[in-house]
Amino acid sequence: MLSCRRDGFQLSAPTDPAALAVFDEVCRKHEVSADLMLKVPQSGDGEQVYDREDRVRKCARLLKDLVAGLGPQRSNTGTADAQAATPSGAG
User: What are the two backbone dihedrals, phi and then psi, of residue 32, each rounded to the nearest 5 degrees?
Assistant: First the structure.
């Protein structure tokens, strides 16, 4: 789960051990804090705060790495299942 907050994005860790290992690695790479917050550097005067980094791109980079890390596990299984379900000589 991912939730947008004023100072960044709040993440939730997966429960699956394999996914958790990938999640932990990606969080370290992207400097996610111990409370699972992907912080977006900001500046301002207190009333008006501005992101100093594009928050959408920052989060997209993290998500891209998560998908890449989790992708082979899911796509290999999906491909094998699809091939097993295809009759011989079809397609």
Answer: -70, 135
User: What's the confidence (pLDDT) of residue 47?
Assistant: 83
Instruction: Read off the pLDDT of each residue in 71-85 and give the average, rounded to a whole number.
Output: 48
User: Rounded to whole angstroms, how far apart are CA atoms 7 and 39?
Assistant: 6
32-39 CB contacts, 8 Å cutoff, 24+ apart: 32/62, 36/10, 36/11, 36/12, 37/5, 37/7, 37/8, 37/9, 37/10, 37/11, 38/8, 38/9, 38/10, 38/11, 38/62, 39/7, 39/8
What is the C-alpha to C-alpha distance for residues 32 and 63, in angstroms, rounded to an integer? 12
* pTM confidence score: 0.73
Question: What's the mean per-residue pLDDT of the chain?
Answer: 84
